[in-house]
Design goal:
Layout (H helix, E strand, L loop, with lengths): L24 E6 L2 E6 L7 E5 H14 L1
Antiparallel strand pairs: 1-2, 2-3
C-alpha cells in the first residue's frame, strides 16, 4: 500500500484562525483517512486517523468545549 502524498492534499483550517495565531491545526482528507498537522510546521509530523477515530476525536473535543 502506498501512502498519499501530503503535498497534494487540500489542507484546511478553522475560519476562526488567522495568520497571527500560532496554535492552529490543519486537516486534509487523504484516501479514507483524515490527516492532521500543525499549521506552523507543515513539513513536520502528522496524525493519520480513520473515519471512526476522527469522529471520536471531534466528539471528545466538543464535549470539553
Amino acid at each position: 500500500m502506498t501512502r498519499p502524498d501530503p503535498s497534494h492534499s487540500a489542507w484546511r483550517k478553522s475560519t476562526h484562525s488567522d495568520a497571527e495565531q500560532a496554535t492552529c491545526v490543519e486537516v486534509a482528507q487523504q484516501d479514507h483517512r483524515i490527516a492532521v498537522r500543525d499549521s506552523m510546521d507543515p513539513d513536520g509530523p502528522r496524525l493519520s486517523l480513520s473515519g471512526p477515530a476522527w469522529r471520536a476525536f471531534l466528539s471528545g473535543i466538543k464535549s470539553r468545549a
